[in-house]
């Protein structure tokens, strides 16, 4: 006869399962929630927001109060019905997941999806730390939210017309923050140096200048050299995206710094790459700022002369390497590079022959 009526979902219930001991029933609905009920009195223990779309399937792990859910959001999630905690998320399917099955031992889960694939998930022996899982999930959500922000790189530009738009990630945002901190340190130290010179001039003797602990950690380098070290520490693939995130208020200081560093001949290629990129994305603001005109004029002279020097050095080195190669080839009567490739090809041919022979014998 009729025993209990469980109500509370706002949209149709799509799936349900009862735990092995008959104490709990879990229901999944199109309202994206999973509700855990007690079968003794029919009370709702907890309502969990489970998926970003309809919950399509739900099953308890045998002999436990753990259960898995599958959703239209392409994810499989594991939950603890006693502690009402989300344990882990399994991602891999490319379309909606319709159903799943848990093995009697609980070591395997098989899922079936609209992408026409079955996936077998195996329990590993690695300990699962919930705090780490949650931290990773928070980072992924933050990265996704940063990537979705529609902020044009140049004021006045639309997102579709912006040629230089790249995907912002946590790494590029952190790299931009490191550049900003380095530029601020450069500003502070430059102001301190000016004050120190004025004090020395007024005192008529040399007064020791206290060194910033950050600069001391890098071997008592100058503030401009510290900024260069920060740029060198950024991955090449993330450099341009990091400069896109950088506010324009830091660009004038960077242009002055680049002029100083290029004159010294420090990492000319890296600095020129950053310089040309900043000029392209902030062209309108730089040309309209009369204060930056002399800086740009100096940069033009410095950059052209230093790039020519670097090009001459590279050309000289290439010519020297070609000469040494010819000399070595003439002495040993061996063709470099061509010999090595042919030797490797011969090895591959022999290995293929051996594999074919083994196949025919078996």
UniProtKB/TrEMBL annotation:
UniProt key word Repeat: yes
Transmembrane segments: none
Source organism of the structure: Equus caballus
Alphabetical UniProt keywords: Repeat, WD repeat
PANTHER family per record: WD REPEAT CONTAINING PROTEIN 3 WDR3, WD REPEAT-CONTAINING PROTEIN 3
Superkingdom of source: Eukaryota
N-terminal signal peptide: none
Protein name per Swiss-Prot or TrEMBL: WD repeat-containing protein 3-like protein
SMART domains, A to Z: WD40
Xref: Pfam families: Beta-prop_WDR3_2nd (PF25172), Utp12 (PF04003)
Family designation: Belongs to the WD repeat WDR3/UTP12 family.
Start-end of each WD repeat: 6-47, 48-89, 90-122
Record domain Small-subunit processome Utp12: where: 224-326
PROSITE patterns, per the entry: WD_REPEATS_2 (PS50082), WD_REPEATS_REGION (PS50294)
